[in-house]
Structures
1.
Amino acid sequence: MSKEVIEYLSELTERECETVPEMAMDRITYAIQEIERLEAVLHRIENWCKAYPHTVFIEPTKEQWRTADETLDAHKGDNCPSLTAISGSNMRHVVEGIQKIITEALDKEQT
């Protein structure tokens, strides 16, 4: 979207630019920069989401999940975490990574 806006603005003639008040141009410039910054944030989140592709980390079958759960459950007394605890920890890791990216973006927005 910002590329389209930049392209449009770059095609404005000198006369057309003179008709746009300086304050409006400042706001337009700021808006374009903000769009670009937020697009970069979305790309970081997109890259984070691609970190564990199915081609590398094959999705376990239901039987494999069941076997893993039973195996871990059999060792519960050996200070072994449950599959639910491991899954929760992994999910928390993913969500915290995305949260960090968003928090950094929001902090930059306020400065």
2.
Amino acid sequence: MRASWPARSKRLQATSLAHSRPITLALAEDALADLIHRTDRAVRLPDIGKAICEVFGLDGDSLQSNRKGKGVSHPRMLAMWLARKHTRSAPERDRPLLRPPQRTAP
């Protein structure tokens, strides 16, 4: 829930009085840190795949291949762990990113 400007102002004034410090930018940042909207860029699944490929020296299709060797499976597991930990929504996470779904013969 977002606090209104009067509420933020009161909080800033109360913090200033409680710490016996004048209102400065540093004090405002500390006092209102949990209310300030963060503008960090959200991590997306393609970003994770690209970063893993760069670090492990793989081409872009390697993570989606059916190969099962350690050179591909460990980076793939790391990418999936990072996706679960750092992506925002479950639908984005559960969408097949790194490997196509397994298909069975009819």
3.
Amino acid sequence: MSQLKTMKCPNCNAQLIGQNGKYFCDYCNSIIELDNSDRVIRIEKVIKADITKTNIIRDEAKIMEAENERQRLHDRRQREKRKDEPWWAVLLLCIAIIGAFIAIVYILDR
């Protein structure tokens, strides 16, 4: 049966817990292997950066997608607003022309 031992990390001096000569440091992400007399025979850095970098890239892509969707919705609202504007402008122009025509007829009848 293997015995759990508590050791200090040779890289960062953080607490290690492991068994059978293999220890992992959560602080510096190192795997430390010891021989039977507790001498370090190998230290290997675990690269979590690849996983983290992949997650960051995926999250950035989601953020960009959400931002693009927000921009598309904004642009569509702006186009819809502009569609409504000419209708009101034409109506106001017609009212102005009719008003001018009535004014001219009124003045000429005098």
